[in-house]
């Protein structure tokens, strides 16, 4: 943080000013800069610690690992390595790694990765006698067999061959969740217009300062002043053109803005971008369902027959939906599951099924 080019220039400026007797102003800037550096470093450290704790919390899960030599034994999940085989014993489990299912089937909540709170059914990897690697062979249904790190196993179904089993594919930063954490830790650099403009502004001020420096040297030399005075005054004029408080002011402003956002439960992983937010005049969202409410309501259904629309059947209605192709499709064409005596699945499927009043 201190080796930022701005702060290096600032250090040079302050040394020069102190040598010329500008003590009070220099000391004030030194105090302000130290406070702003400390605040920035403290905020970054806090964010890193919180992120580390969040990731570490999910990495301390007890799993049952099976080996040929030692049989089955309990292990902490951070000891897992690719190739290990572990059991899914029916308990709810937050997966600590990416694993491929080889036996049994699972119902998994992938909300952490996709944002959709719809349980997904995972099936075991099929036994295919093919020389091609399985990833290449089944890339289109890769997601059907892989249990992703950070997602939660809600239910496991056993097969005749024994308990549900999975083999560790990837751990740590190589997993789906690790990729997410890595993108938070190291966001893609964005070349914002504000930074380009700020750089141009400082270059412009520097050019003015250089003209001042040349003029000062010429005037002082014509008056035959000592060389030490000429150099000191020339550099002084250069440092006055570029304000040395710019980095401290920007940092302090950003930290203050971050604190205000935090009070409103808004968190920022890249504080530098807060300055840019003032320039935003349009925000686009891809989906209203996740912003307004989780569920959907079934308003009505319009059957068609003989290439014509029939009467609207509104929900909820005192008369049940009459039996026919529409009712049959609504009652059977869905991917709902019964978990703990409660129907779970896609909200659209759920509302559609409830509308039929079937069990």
From TrEMBL:
Transmembrane segments: 25-44, 201-222, 234-257
Cellular component, GO annotation: late endosome membrane
Annotated membrane topology: Multi-pass membrane protein
Ligase in keyword set: no
Stored Pfam families: E1-E2_ATPase
UniProt-recorded Gene Ontology molecular function terms: ATP binding; ATPase-coupled monoatomic cation transmembrane transporter activity; metal ion binding; P-type transmembrane transporter activity; polyamine transmembrane transporter activity
A biological process from GO: intracellular calcium ion homeostasis
SUPFAM superfamilies named in the record: Calcium ATPase, transduction domain A (SSF81653), Calcium ATPase, transmembrane domain M (SSF81665)
Domain P-type ATPase A: 60-184
Gene3D superfamilies registered for this protein in UniProt: Calcium-transporting ATPase, cytoplasmic transduction domain A
Record keyword Membrane present: yes
Primary localisation category: membrane
InterPro entries xrefs: ATPase_P-typ_P_site, ATPase_P-typ_TM_dom_sf, ATPase_P-typ_transduc_dom_A_sf, ATPase_P-type_domA, P-type_TPase_V
Subcellular location: Membrane
Family: Belongs to the cation transport ATPase (P-type) (TC 3.A.3) family. Type V subfamily.
Protein name per the record: Putative cation-transporting ATPase 13A5
């Amino acid at each position: 943080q201190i080796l930022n080019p701005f702060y290096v220039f600032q250090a040079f400026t302050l040394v020069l000013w102190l040598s010329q007797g500008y003590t009070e102003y220099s000391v004030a800037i030194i105090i302000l800069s130290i406070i702003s550096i400390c605040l920035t470093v403290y905020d970054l450290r806090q964010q890193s610690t919180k992120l580390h704790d969040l990731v570490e919390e999910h990495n301390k899960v007890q799993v049952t690992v099976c080996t040929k030599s030692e049989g089955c034994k309990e292990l902490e999940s951070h000891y897992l390595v690719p190739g290990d085989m572990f059991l899914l014993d029916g308990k709810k489990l937050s997966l600590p790694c990416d694993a491929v299912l080889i036996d049994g089937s699972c119902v998994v909540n992938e909300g952490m990765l996709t944002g959709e709170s719809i349980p997904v059914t995972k099936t075991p990897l099929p036994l295919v006698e093919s020389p091609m690697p399985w990833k290449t062979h089944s890339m289109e249904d890769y997601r059907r067999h892989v249990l992703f790190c950070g997602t939660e196993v809600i239910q496991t179904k056993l097969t005749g061959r024994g308990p549900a089993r999975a083999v560790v594919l990837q751990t740590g930063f190589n997993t789906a969740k690790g990729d997410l954490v890595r993108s938070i830790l190291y966001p893609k650099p964005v070349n914002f217009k504000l930074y380009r403009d700020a750089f141009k502004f400082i270059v412009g001020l520097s050019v003015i300062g250089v003209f001042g420096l040349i003029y000062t040297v010429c005037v002082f030399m014509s008056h035959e002043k000592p060389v030490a005075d000429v150099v000191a005054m020339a550099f002084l004029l250069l440092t006055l053109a570029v304000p040395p408080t710019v980095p401290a002011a920007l940092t302090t402003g950003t930290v203050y803005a971050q604190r205000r956002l935090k009070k409103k439960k808004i968190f920022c992983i890249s504080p530098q971008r807060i300055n840019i937010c003032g320039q935003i005049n349009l925000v686009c969202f891809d989906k209203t369902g996740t912003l307004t409410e989780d569920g959907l309501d079934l308003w009505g259904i319009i059957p068609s027959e003989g290439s014509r629309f029939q009467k609207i059947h509104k929900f909820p209605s005192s008369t049940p939906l009459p039996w026919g192709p529409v009712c049959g499709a609504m009652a059977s064409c869905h991917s709902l599951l019964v978990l703990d005596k409660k129907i779970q699945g896609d909200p659209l499927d759920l509302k559609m099924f409830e509308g039929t009043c079937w069990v």
